[in-house]
Amino acid sequence: MTALVNDALEKAHTLNYVMVITVIYIKNTIEIRHITMQTPLYIDNQTALENLCQKLKSASCIALDTEFLREKTYSARLCLIQVATEQTIACIDPFKLDSLDPFMEILFDRHILKILHSARQDLEIFHDLSGKVPGPIFDTQIAATLLGLPDQCGYATLVKQLLNVELDKAQTRTDWSRRPLDTAQLDYAADDVRYLIQLYPLILQQLQTSGRQDWLNEDFLNLENPDIYQLPLDNLWKKVSGHARLKGKQLAIVKQLACWREKRARVQDLPRKWVLADDIIIALARMAPTQPQQLEKIRGLNNSRSKNQGEEILAEIKAANDMPKEQ
Fold first, then answer.
1. For the chain, where do the domains classified as CATH 1.10.150.80 start and end?
2. Residue 281 CA to chain centroid, in angstroms?
3. Mean of per-residue pLDDT scores for the chain
4. What is the pLDDT of residues 136-186, one digit of tens each?
5. What is the torsion angle, in degrees rounded to the nearest 10, for the CA atoms of residue 277, residue 279, residue 280 and residue 281?
6. DSSP β-ladder status, 77-84 and 89-92
7. Residue 63 in this model has a pLDDT that exceeds 90
8. CATH fold label, 233-322
9. How many Å apart are CA 6 and CA 27, to the nearest integer?
10. pLDDT band with cut points at 50, 70 and 90 for residue 231
11. Quick count: other Cβ atoms within 10 Å of Cβ 6?
């Protein structure tokens, strides 16, 4: 039996998710070792990271989460990585490390299942760092919907429902970019994987009992698609709230300004809506100004950042108006 399991894992990249997950289920025998009270390792140097990754290499699944900030930047700033197996729980501090390469090898090892809750933002961060998406993936939020729990079920709700544990919310507003992190903060962060590794076998067992585990294949595989983490510039207008009410030249202006905003946001490392808010793009599309004086009539364009970009905004509007109708 062991030989069959190991052979299946060797071929994991050619198998569908159900087969991979089932093999992992058998291999682990789903014996959760009691890590509930375990103090998380704080990984703050390269040697500690390499030692941790040596342990992770022998795991068939890991629970994974991140803490990040993106309120003031274009890209999310990775502040902490939490990881757990049945035996080990750790918080990796990227601020203290020269390189995350040893851990990246774990993320892209197809023999190791990555268990996350509401995985998309975490995967986006790793995609931004490496240009690749970790895999294979098991998202407990997606899986929970097949257990009769609400769509977008929160992690705390799932932990309460399945493990009867009430999570501490005292550190909800923590600024994860500030150092040092104290014990309470690290324990709080570790809880995001401490219970996640315990949720997985419970969810998987219920899915197997109901015969629904194969329903998840497409959703989980889609999470590995790199295209979903960076829309082409030509499609960014779809992110502009209110665009559906416009058409013709007005919509052309929205498309042009959305592309311009994205390029500006990337270069300046600012949230796109700090460069130009959605409602301002819609107002510009409706007014289609051609003179700087007209820009002054649009609320929100009187701040220094937008005002200094007035000439560029007018140039983009002109470019949209000059396009043939079919564009």
1. 233-322
2. 27
3. 88
4. 999 999 999 999 888 889 999 999 999 999 998 888 889 999 999 999 999
5. 90
6. antiparallel
7. yes
8. DNA polymerase; domain 1 (1.10.150)
9. 8
10. confident
11. 12
CB environment 101-112: b (16+ within 10 A), e (fewer): ebbbebbebbbb
- pLDDT for residue 21: 47
**Mean pLDDT within 205-221:** 91
Distance CA 267, CA 264 (A): 5
The torsion angles phi and psi of 179, rounded to 5 degrees, stand at -130, 150
- The answer to whether the beta carbons of residues 177 and 69 sit under 8 Å apart is yes
Torsional class of 43: left (φ above 0), alpha (ψ -120 to 50), beta (otherwise) = beta
pTM of the model: 0.81
- Best CA proximity match to 134, nearest among 117, 99, 100, 110: 110
Q: Topology of 2-229 in CATH?
A: Nucleotidyltransferase; domain 5 (3.30.420)
pLDDT number for residue 299? 84
Residues in the chain: 327
DSSP reduced 3-state for 59: coil
* Parts of the chain belonging to CATH 3.30.420.10: 2-229
CA distances from 245 to 57, 272, 279, 285, 326 (A): 52, 21, 12, 11, 18
Tokens representing 114 are 């990555």
The DSSP result for 253-287, as a single string, is HHHHHHHHHHHHHHHHT--HHHHS-HHHHHHHHHH
Question: What does each C-alpha distance from 9 to 112, 116, 200 come to in angstroms?
Answer: 9, 20, 18
Contacts 24+ apart (CB under 8 A), 16-21: 16/214, 16/217, 17/136, 17/138, 17/216, 17/217, 17/220, 17/221, 18/213, 18/214, 18/216, 18/217, 20/113, 20/136, 21/113, 21/136, 21/138, 21/204, 21/213
